[in-house]
## 1
Amino acid sequence: MPEEKTPYLNHARFFEFLPVALYRATPAGRIIWANPAMVRTLGCGSMDELLGIHTPELYADRKVREKWRQMMRESGLVADFEWQMQRADGRRSWVRENARADCDDGGRIIAYEGSLEDITGKKQLRESLGERARVLDAINRVFSEAMTRGTEQEVAATCLSVAEEMTQSRFGFLGELNANGRLDTLAIGDASRRACLLHESRAPAMIRDMPVRGMWGRVIAGGRSLLANDPQNHPHSIGTPAGHISLTAFLGVPLAQDGKTTGLIGLANKDGGYTENDRENTEQLSLAFSKALQMKRTEAERSRVCSH
């Protein structure tokens, strides 16, 4: 008697206790077999719930599902394919999938068999390490500028540039309190200069000796960061002057010397709004800039004394 062809995942007793999520599903998207690890990975409460799932609905991005199907049509195999899952319990997770198409003698796909690994924790760790590296690179650029270039304004411009880049902000400025307790702008982002259609005769007054008020005034007065992704309706918003950019999101982070607030980094209009990570990363950068500025001024004072 010829040996019956049996898909490898049908050896249920062997696969039942494996920690890896395994499945067999029809081309239409119905799961016809899975092990207990698959129940947990999909966020289901029971095997019955899992067997009632329509697999295309698991994809947080349906375009990714189409890419998966195209790969299967072309090669009959998907290897180390990472995608974001919309779990049955409402949560989202990242998984890595390895799967193959099971075909009949005529080459027609009759099922998909594969494995899923939840890589959410690993992906978050990779992203965290990558983000940490970006912050350290930004801090290094600020100190490098302070040690190799000539003016406070150049150091401030570098700090603002890397802050805008790091947070994907469209606009930004960096200001410092003057002797009268009002704000002088040390640096303005290039995009901000182009977008703020201020008349040349008004520009100096608008960016120097400014009263401390509004949302960025709150940052200075309170000595704490302020994150507003609906700035027009923020209780401390006072609107914007004529010709100023329209704010869709705002992040203000204080600058400090010896425990005293001395100014702020103001960032605006990141697509999708700012996150707590943006705030924390910019706070680290603000510490580096304050230290670099202090170093620059100490160096300038030393040079002044030595020249007399």
## 2
Amino acid sequence: MKARDAAAPSEFQHDLIRMRVDGLVIERLAVPEPGLRIDPEDRGIGAQFEHRGLTRLLPATYHKPPTLRGLVDTDDERDILAEIEGPTSGRLQAERGRKPHIDLRELACRRRSQNLRIYGDSHVNAAFTYTRTGVNRFNSGERGAWYCAWNVMVSVREVAFHRTRELTYTGRFEDRARYVELLADFIGVIDDITDDSTRPALNPDPAIGYPEGQSLAQQLRRHGSRRLRNPSARAPAPGGNCLVCFEPRAILNVRPGASWDLVWDGTPDYAIVAVG
């Protein structure tokens, strides 16, 4: 069965394939190749989609050049200090094959020559090897995921929600945080649950939505899903959609974008300031 997605024409003009995953109806978004017959029961769908420049926001403190580099004069000395840092770094542990919940072959550095490092490799790997205390909607504490959005303001709303939540725990809404855009491209098949915002996995209450979302993500990954389009719980206006990517190797061409300051001045409300 095919249905045309008319809800967000600025983002998608593709065919939807509805499929059932452990009792849940999921829409698999794809652009069919000319003359290709798409069978909803066929896991080997050859259709592709392409979206460029989706935005993930990273705290600027995590975007700076490696701290150790400023302490040494040569790359050899840097490697020695990296060995010392390794036992306390989840990313480095994963890149050495010591993380049981992520396959070493999945990581960005393993897709290329050992002598070639490309911008974004460490950021991609870190997204899957470091997890937030209290976890997120579509990942557990054992394995992370790459969260991003088509609209940067949706990403702002998402990170601001978590930052405000953390400030609530302190009882003091005084903060200024800088975030850097990481832009990435995605090519392939995408699963879609934007048709029904009443799904338990999309409940805005983390106590309800997060366990349900993690369960859904596990089901989808078992069925070969690599990406999921979902409506933002923090920016629910039309077009406020997010993408969560479950595999490092599905994240392409990572590059830096603009910077933004989020400012809290005594209340849970915040101001957004473009930097530069």
## 3
Amino acid sequence: MRKYNLENLIKESYMKKIILNLLLLFTLSHIMAQSKKKKDIISIKEMCGCFEVKFSFSETFGNLNDETYIPSKNYTSWGLEWAQLIGEDKNSLSIQHILIAGDEKEPYIIKHWRQDWIYQNTDFYFYDFDNKWKYTSKNKKDVKGQWTQKVYQVDDSPRYEGSSSWVHVDGKSYWENYSSAPLPRRELSKRKDYNVMFRGNRQEIKSFGWIHDQDNKKIVRANNEKDIVIADEKGYNIYKKVDNKRCIEAVKWWDNNKTKWKIVRDKWNEIYARRKNLALHKTVNKKPLFMYLFDKNLTNEDEINSTIELFLIN
């Protein structure tokens, strides 16, 4: 028979308490993480629906000692936009934005940008410059509890992405990150003096909808050279939620076109799964990719896939 003395009993009791406390701590930590994740998902879904949108951008500082430098004019535009949740599982959400232009009774529907949110993602395509993205794999511990926002062009090719934690504090819910991106379309045809927009993005959920607050830098980037910042820019986009009935034509358009765009997304996902640096032609036969994909007659899966492949630079 095993003999116990007082000292052994005390040691065993102490060890049991330590183990129980560790198990309790682990359980509480897991419950808190899951509760936080649910709050994150609720915030992301708040960006779905029908919105009146106001886009505003203004250069704030010129950073070159160049008296001939001409800043971009202040830019403001308005629109009606439908944000459709097109995919969801326990660790990801995908939101397709669709613009509604012209008369709301007889609108012109335009497929706009898409944002995917992935929990604790480790695979990244970070924009470099000149239509090139660098594939990067991160360690799981470096993205613990974080969400990656992946932003895509209207043709579902990559734009920019970054990983950060959603923050819920003092009645606020927001996510913010810094990431390099191609020039925005509003500048693409007007500015040739810089080639990277370094974006400071903040998505914040509001009682009326949400805002996309930006602190951007216009950068000249080249291989093996230090970035040159030529100007700073402030962006402030307001998404005001309105009755979903106002976006009904966008809902119908997506229902009629979602099969085609799933083919497009699946092809891009196959390309991203190759996990290597990516470079794209800006045009093929003087046409950008979106002009090919926006063609209503292009619906065949093989033709869609081969069209996208034409734009890949091996």
## 4
Amino acid sequence: MDCLRIQEILSEAADGGPIPTDLLAEATTHAATCERCATFARGLGLLQTVTAPAASTRLVDSALASIAAERNALRTETTTAEAGPAEETPTRRPHEPGGRDLRVSWWAPRLTVFATAAVFMLAALTLSAIGYFGGFRQLAADKSGETASTAIQESADDRVLGGTSEADTATMNTPDVETPAYASVDDRVFRRVGALSVDEGLLVIVGPVAGRSQADTTAPVYAYDAGAKDGSVVVEEPDIGWVAYEPVVRRFASYRYQLRTRTPLTVPGQWPDLPAAYPTPASIDGSPTFRFFGYDELGVRVFVPVAGDERDGFSVAPGSPTDDPAAGNPNWTWWAPLP
């Protein structure tokens, strides 16, 4: 399959068209190793995040003010004409079938109004297009050497299509991939950052950390909100003191979504998994549980429930790039709006 056909398949998938599973798998695998198709895939991801061109408020106000001024001038001229002496009815000419008044005093003000509006709208659309396509070219130039973030690797395909049982997904690991130092609070997933100093008088309890208890007791270890703007929490650890854990997040349409897990992360080596409400998809296109919805800000494909949208959350397939928040996870992952 050549690059043109690969790009046609990726484009049709981005538009939500029905693509056979084997063709989509072949296209995304090819895009992982082809620089040209990788750039094309990133472009599709960017298109999903671009809003419709819109003129600035200042430009719109200026256009409306000009139109209003022309309209007022037209009204003034009309009023003056009505107050003056009656004019003789113009002789109807053969090329004026309706007897319409085609004098300059009638059509010139109207033409000015419409021309002014057209000029302002054309300028607004031109500026928007320059900004968009300039940004697209810059993105392609800056990232031309990176691996396509939309690629789903063959190893991930094998894991998904192999029908791994849901009971095993939380403890699965992949060769040569170290599981991050995760901690879960309720179903929210955090990643260990490091020790820090905190003002204990400002701490607010967030919830118990899964699988942890205070020494020689069954009392839970709590995560606390220390006022961090990014949603990080702090946990007191033996022989260390206070340690910061940041939320594992990704961005979609300028909003932050945090990684969630059905199974509490209580021991090293566990990976977050899907909520119980969403069975593991049988195909890399997300079916029958999910449907393709678009690309996040890293250019990774996101999937939403077949009867829902992104407001409650979305899923990401395994096999994401090494710089992705879900890198190394062999499971489909679930991301919900950050509280």
